[in-house]
Design goal:
The protein has four helices and two strands. By secondary structure, it is mostly helical. It has a domain of about 70 residues: Orthogonal Bundle (YggX-like), CATH 1.10.3880. It has a two-stranded antiparallel ribbon with strand order 1-2. The longest helix is centred in the middle third of the chain and has 17 residues.
């Protein structure tokens, strides 16, 4: 228990996978360095374009994992416009704000080890 409180989770590091020749490079807002970018605009509208221009493929993978937790914890329906709006707000915070907030009362599952 003390370990959980005293030792914060390590910050994710980008993988050491080299960029494919001809890969589109971006200055990733999450990692602060040049990395391979996404192959397509991942979200509709201006936010999707901003993500495409400023987020690495590696950081997008982190968002996908985080978004799964948000969808489950908030019990969101991907077809509901209100759920879509909440996800967009969370994505904005995750990449361009102070980081996405965890749902109130969220307790991460403990891994056996």
């Amino acid at each position: 228990m003390a370990d959980e409180l005293c030792n914060p989770q390590p910050v994710a590091q980008p993988s050491a996978t080299p960029a494919k020749p001809g890969a589109r490079m971006v200055k990733c807002v999450k990692f602060g360095k040049e990395m391979p970018g996404l192959e397509y605009v991942p979200w509709n509208g201006p936010l999707g374009q901003r993500v495409y221009e400023n987020v690495s493929a590696e950081a997008w993978k982190m968002w996908i994992e985080h978004s799964k937790m948000i969808m489950n914890e908030y019990r969101l329906n991907p077809l509901d416009p209100n759920s879509h709006k909440l996800m967009e707000e969370q994505m904005e915070q995750f990449f361009f704000g102070e980081g996405a907030k965890l749902p109130e009362g969220f307790v991460p599952q403990r891994t056996k080890g």
